[in-house]
Fold each of these.
Amino acid sequence: MKKIVLAAVLLMAANSFAADIMYLKRGVVFNHLGHQTEKVGLCSACHVETEGTPGKIPGLGKDWAHRTCIECHDIFEKGPTKCDGCHTKK
């Protein structure tokens, strides 16, 4: 029982510390909170869970983002799939 309570507390803490808006390379602005609550809703869709809490994204980088984000946007038919949809800086 203690492990379940601890896992729930850690999960809530992890969600509260996640950045709402993330400013990435090449002008990409990622609404983490929006994806977390309104769109994907499942942390494990991108993050690897460790002991019940979402962790880092293995392989996160240009290739991962292009492959994963575009595929997800295609599946849900929402979100940008072209370069200038995410890369807003010229």
Amino acid sequence: MKPLRIEATEFTPTIILDPETNQFEISGESRPENAGKFYSKILDWLDQYYNLRYWKDNKFSDSPTVKFEFKLEYFNSTSAKFILDILLKLESFQKDNVIIKVIWQYDEPDIDMKESGEEFAEMTGIPFEFVSV
């Protein structure tokens, strides 16, 4: 399966979804003009990843922990909906015994970003590690 890499723009975050290196990251600012179009590529890729892992790892019994890093500086309300969609998809993976860990990185003085992560964690039940930088 090919990695999904999207370079950041003024309005969209960097996306790195690489099953070979087990690197999953969304970083930067997220305020795309068409959030549905931007994030649908990520959601579709995650569906393909799930199917690959399911068959390759004998129904996840041999699956490595999926560490998904969020290093967002800003996201608008439309992006928040799609970030939640990504996290809910990861939560569904978790229900099939895929070990998921979210690393939510935020600038230390940005309490709003930390609280957003805490709300996402509460809504999904996925273990979050909060890292201030």
Amino acid sequence: MDLVKKNILSIIFGVVALIALIAWTWPLGSIKAEAEQELNARAKVYSSMQSILSQQRTMPVTSLDGAEPEPLGMFPTQKVIEWGRDITKRMAAEVQGVKDLAVRLNQRPLLVPYSLPVPQPTMEFRFRDVYLRYLTEFPQLVKAGTPPTQDDVTKAEQELWKSKYEPNIVIRDGVPDPISQQLVTAEFNSERAQLPDRVKMQKARSILFYIQPTALDVSTHFTQQASAGSAPTPPAIWDAQLKVWIQNDIAQAIVDLNSRESKTGSVIDAPVKQLVQIRVENLRGATAVRPGSSSMGMGGMPPGGFGGPPPDYMMGGMGMDMGMGMGSSGPAAPETLTGRTANPLYDVVPFQVTIHIQADKLPDFLEELARNRFITPYQVVSMKSVNNVLLGATTNVVYGTAPVVEAVIAGEALLLRDWTVPLMPQEIKQSLGIDGSTDGSVPTM
């Protein structure tokens, strides 16, 4: 005990030193670990910076011809960076220009201005009247026609008799001379035997292609209710207008090809001989929308009807809003050969067209369909030969001597939403899953 008392100070200092030693060494492990982590992080930053510094840089590729990027021999300076940004802006402007051009090529007029998306007062009745008149006048607008009927031949016979032969009969005392009448009648009968072929050829020389009376697709509302005087609803007007837009392009493709290929300007040597049928389906990905009280959903496939290039009194300059006007992509649709479905950029309209065409000109017609028309003919569903002689004898058509086939072609047309969404009735937008907040204002004149 005396020893402790004599050395109390040494003991106290020893204990303090021991405690200090323990206090120093206790957290050293964690501090060391933290230091190692920070060191590793700094090493990664250093490695990343070295990689950036040593990375091979290239000049922006501004050519669309698949050119190889040129190496940049120095780290980008502010001037180079600004130059790159300028190129990016110019390329973006060019892309937008291409898109604007596509919209202008794709855009179609309304039959009646201000009839969509919500018709102004009385416009729904005006659309009905213009649409029905349009259907009647379409063959003349595209220089098409139906083959002559027996009534046409009979009318030609009557006109021939009255204009050429009846005046040649000798009249004696107010009574036709029997001998003169017999001779004139014999001459008339001789020419009348050749009249059916002459009428057929006259008709063929006057048209660019034949068209079946039931070839073209009419919206069901206008076939079933027009006589009742009911006003078409916005979905019914949209359905009719959609068919017109698509069939315009198909008919115009026939006109363009025949006008370019025919030397006589007639069906006799034109590639497309007859438009047999067009059927336009609903927008792909859209749910059914009833046009008025018709039992068939929008875009169904009723018999008859057609669309085509509108005449001058229907064109009406339409200054469309070129804003984006996009919504959601809409309901999912079945897979197709192209894989295209409704999306924020465009809607897809499937169709099928049946034509009689010169056999070796079918590829030309498929190409013509796609020329500046946003149409993809993706399948020749069926093809069979046509007996020109037999068909001419039974239906009074004149197809010429080249082999002809009947081709059924499936295709799809694209309608860009930049211009269609502002024209869509609300029901159509909902069927496509388009956001209701999308601009739906009527385009200005």
